[in-house]
Amino acid sequence: MEAIRHEGIFKSAHEAIVFACNYTSQQYAMSPMAKLLQRGAHGSGRGLIGLDGAAQSGMVFAELDGLDYLQMLILVARNSPRKERCECTHSCCSGWKPNPIYRDAVSQLTELVMPVLGSAFSFRRHRYAVVDKYFGEKHDIKAIAEDLGLPPRTADRHASAIRKFLKDAEKDAWTKWYERLDAAGMLLQTA
Length: 191
Hints:
Layout: H1 13-22, H2 32-38, H3 50-65, H4 69-79, E1 83-85, E2 96-98, H5 100-112, H6 124-134, H7 141-148, H8 152-183
Antiparallel strand pairs: 1-2
Helix pairs in contact: 1-3, 4-5, 4-8, 5-6, 6-7, 6-8, 7-8
């Protein structure tokens, strides 16, 4: 008996992971008045709100869990928001705090890139800054290296090796991710 293949819901694997990483459990149903005020602004029509959205997000994460751990961390770091709203109302607060999912992914990647540097001694703070910058955060790598007493050529060599490793690993991660979601039937089939 042949397995039934359902029509997918996402246009691409990228759209699926961005949806899952950005989905929050704090989405509430709109009141009738809010619906009236929205005037013509409609969703995608794919049912990605409320419990359906939560379930779909969970299914995407279940597929993500089937990838190699390094690949999973890279995709989560690339697609998770780096910051989230902070509602603490303290006078020193900027209104934003680091997203723990993004921060944890970068932290774990910082440890996983160590073998790339061989037996060379490296500073975790420098590796973290290089990995974090690779995913879009602003860091002055040279200033961090100088602060740590790391020679400039060594710092550049380490940063270059880490970036090359992450770039190659990210390319492999996207390939495997597209294959996995396509096999699971989660992607819309185009003619």
